[in-house]
Amino acid sequence: MQRQYRQSLSQATSLGRNRAIGTAPMRRPGAVGAEAGTPAASLWRHAAASASVRTADPTATAHASVGSAVRTGPKAPDFRTASQTTHHVLARAEENARLNDYEQGVKTAFDSIVPTLKRISALQHEPDFESQAQAIARRELGFELPEDILADAWIDQLDMRHLYAGCTFATYHRFCDDFFTTDPLAVEDGEKNFNGGFEGFLQTCGFHTLDISPCADGRLAHLIRYVLRLPHRAVRRKSYAGALFDIENSVQKWVEVEMLRFRAGVPNTADAPTRYLKVVAYHYSSVDPEHGGCAAHGSDTAKAASAGLERLLGFQQAIENSFCCGASIDLLLIGLDTDTDAIRVHVPDGEGAMALDRYVDALELYAATARQDASRARHDIQDAVRQTSPGVAEGMARLIERLIENNFSQIAYVRDYHGDHYADIGHAERFIGAGVGFEEIQLRNLMYFAYLDTVEEAASDLDVGIRIFTELNCRRGLPVPVVVRFDYHGQVPGARERAVTRCRRVTEALQSRYRDLFGRGLLHVLQVVRDCNADAPIEILECTVNAERKAGGH
Ligand SMILES: [Zn+2]
Ligand SMILES: [Zn+2]
C-alpha cells in the first residue's frame, strides 16, 4: 500500500554534507563592536562555576537576570505599521508577550557582555577601578568578574578575550540553571491538564510519540516551543545538519519506545492502535532564497525538502523491513521560513504519501483568515488541510490543524515584535554547542549546534560553525566560545564517567583541529555534563579560561 509513492522520491538528489556557508548577513541585533583585547598574563578563576554567579546584586536591573525576572517585565515596543495585519483572531497575544519577555531577557543577557566590557575597559586606569568595574558587572551582567584579572589590569591591558569568554560561559551557566529550576517555557497549567494535555491530544490523533528532526541551524532551535507551540518535554527533538537524521539512531529510539509500551504501558499499552510519528523540518528563506536557506543543501529549498522526505521514507522502510506483523510508522514533512517563522505542512494523503508540491502554507492561510471570527478561521484551516489531501487520515488532519493554528501565534509574534521578518535573517548565534543534549536551547539564533560523539564525525559541521564565528567574533578580536556538552542517563552505572571522558576527548580534538585559533586565545571551551534522567542542572567540568591560568597564560 505504501510502496507506490516512494517512486516519486527516486529523483531526489543524493546529497553530500558539503555545507557551504551562504552569504546571508551575519549580525546580532544590539551587539556592538569591541576593541581587540591584548593578550596578557592575567588569570581567571573558573568563571562559570564561580559562586558570584549566584550572588548577583539583588538590585541588578531586570535585563541582568536571565529569564525569570524579566518575564513579568513590560512588553517590548510594538513596531507595527498600519499596513500590516499583525493580529489574528487565533493568535495568543498573552502567550506571545510571555515568550517574548523570555527571549529578550536571555538574548539581552548575552548581548550586554560586549558593551559592558567596553565600559569597564575604559575605566581601567582609574584609581578605584576594581570596585567600579565590579559594580558595573553586577548591575549589567548579574555577576562579578574575577578579581585577579581586574587586579592585574594596572600592569598591562585588561584581558578582554578571557573576560569575554568567561562572561559568555557564566551567562550560559546562569541561563541553564534558570531553565532547569524555574521551567520558564512551561505551558499554561490549564493547557497542561486539559484532557491529558498534549500527550492525550496526540493519542487521540493516533500517535503515541512525536519525534521531530529539524535542521541543526540555530534559526530552527525554537521550532518546538515557539514555531509549533508544543510543550518541549512532550516532544523528542534531535537536530541534524540539513535535517538529515540518523536512521539507525531513530530505529533504536523506536525500539525503545515500543519496548516501553509493551513492558510498562508507557505512554500507552502496546495494543492501543497508535503509531510513532516522525517529523522532519527543513527550512528556507523568503527574504533571501538564494543564500538564506539551508546551508547543508546549498540554500536550495526543493533539495532540502526532497532530502528530508527521502530520509523519512528510509526510516519507514527500515522499520517495515526489520519488524514483522505490520509494524510501521507515520511520517510528516514540514518546511519553515526562517525569516517569518511561517510553516508549510506537506499533508499526507490517505496512504500516508506526501508530495513536495502539495502543502498548506500557514502564512497564506493566516492572511486569508485574520479578520474572521474564531470558528470561521478554524473551519477554513480544516478545509485547507482536507483540500490539500482529500483522503488525509482524520487524526493526522487534526494534528496538522493544531500545528497550523499554533503557528499563527508565532507568525503574529514575529510581526508584532520584529516586523515583516526578523532583522537577523542570517546567522547571529552567541556560542557554539557541541555534543549531545542542550534541551534548554529553545531560542532562535542563540547557539550554533553540532551534534556529535567525536569531533571527526562532525568535522564539517564544526568547520562551518568555526567559519561563522570567525566572521561574527574573531574579526572583532573576540574568541569563539564553545560549550562541549554530554548528557547521560544517571541510572546507568559509569555513564557519568563516560560522559566526562567524552567531553575531555572532544575538547582535545577541538584544540588540535583549530590549534591556530586556540594558540591565539581565540577559541575557548567550557566542558559540561548533565544527568538528563534526574532532571538535574548542568555540571561544570573544565574550562579553558581556567586551564590557561594553570599553564601560566598564553
Ligand atoms: Zn539547514
Ligand atoms: Zn537522555
Automatic annotation (TrEMBL):
Protein name, entry field: Carboxysome shell carbonic anhydrase
Primary enzyme class: lyase
Family matches, as InterPro entries: Carboxysome_shell_carb_anhy (IPR014074), CsoSCA_C (IPR048620), CsoSCA_C_sf (IPR043066), CsoSCA_cat (IPR048539), CsoSCA_N (IPR048619), CsoSCA_N_sf (IPR043065)
EC number: 4.2.1.1
Domain annotation Carboxysome Shell Carbonic Anhydrase N-terminal: ranges: 88-180
Family: Belongs to the beta-class carbonic anhydrase family. CsoSCA subfamily.
Domain of life: Bacteria
